[in-house]
Amino acid sequence: MDWQTFLSKAGYRLSEPRKRIMKLMEMADKPLNPLAIHRLLREQGVHLGLVSVYRTLELFFSLGLISQVFQPDGLVGYLPVSFGHHHFIVCQNCHKAVEFLGSEDMQELIQRIHSETHYQVRDHLLQFYGLCPECQALLENGDIN
Amino acid sequence: MDWQTFLSKAGYRLSEPRKRIMKLMEMADKPLNPLAIHRLLREQGVHLGLVSVYRTLELFFSLGLISQVFQPDGLVGYLPVSFGHHHFIVCQNCHKAVEFLGSEDMQELIQRIHSETHYQVRDHLLQFYGLCPECQALLENGDIN
DNA sequence: TTGTTATTGATAATATTTTTCAATAAGCCA
DNA sequence: TGGCTTATTGAAAAATATTATCAATAACAA
């Protein structure tokens, strides 16, 4: 089920702003925050209220259509979620992000955490940082770092 | 080497505000953000400028003395780091957090990410959410959720 | 098409973070 | 110990980010 169907079934309307915002996030392969989305849309001539961007992201997030991605510097961005997977690796240079298939062999670690801390484990956040293929090439050429 | 020695050796002064802030974070067993730190110190009669809190956290973070902890709702808090470990589990009810020993058996997953995405993996963020022992008891008594 | 109502956008209010700069105090050295 | 140098602080202001309000608009069901 695509996000548009999902949104409708959940009782929400498929408005133009919502379509624009999701489309932008799908095109951008890096996490975007509300201000960035507003600025980018404006640059391509789409004039949305910033408030709508906030509201839309909040809605999408609460429905699980997008994920929060935490940058190493503490900034938070959003990325559309291919259903079921919620793990990303983010390029430290160009910030391009891709999802990878969540490992389900986390059980052993969860066991260990439980015996170490006595916490009941219910959820987790796992993200990786590194260099995408393009930026690896740049690094080898001495163009970065 | 304790953080005070570390700070000195790095060429920074061991000021009263810095001591207060670190001590507070060490006492609190949950992630604190700048505003919370400012408010808590003020409540216990310590009158610090909010600006100093921001500056101190930035410094501590850049030196690796504290870690950022991401709450499921997107808020960021800070926790002192026991050297070498940077993985936390946060209680979803009372927000109390404890560190657990970082698993070094991440290698296999890193391998898989590399072959799936062709990203060079350099760092990662791994956090768990759950219920601490106290809140598990509350849950069983029907006092929460 | 038309009517109902969720959704938007504009404006204002609030909250958070950063900048600036004079006053203060940490730590070195005599 | 006491003075000197300079990193650090605090206050105020500026900049930035987020949330609230409400009339105007547009999505969608009938």
Question: Could you characterize the architecture of this molecule?
Answer:
- 2 copies of one chain form a homodimer.
- Chain A has helices at residues 3-9, 16-27, 34-43, 50-63, 107-117, 133-140, and strands at residues 66-70, 76-80, 87-91, 97-100, 120-131.
- Chain A is α+β, with helices and mostly antiparallel strands and 145 residues long.
- Chains A and B meet through helix 5 and strand 5 of A and helix 5 and strand 5 of B.
- Strand 5 of chain A pairs antiparallel with strand 5 (120-131) of chain B.
- Chain B binds a DNA duplex (30 and 30 nucleotides) through residues 8, 11-18, 34-35, 47-52, 54-55.
Quickly name the level 1 CATH class of chain A.
Mainly Alpha
Kindly estimate the percentage of residues of chain A that lie in beta strands according to DSSP. 15-25%
* Rg estimate of chain A, integer Å: 18 Å
Spans where pLDDT lies below 50 across 5 or more residues of chain A: none
Distance between the termini of chain A: 42 Å
For the biggest sheet of chain A, the summary is: 3 strands, mixed
Largest interface: A-B, 37 and 36 residues
Number of helices of chain A: 6
Short description:
The structure is a homodimer of 145-residue chains. The first copy, chain A, has six helices and five strands, in the order ααααββββαβα.
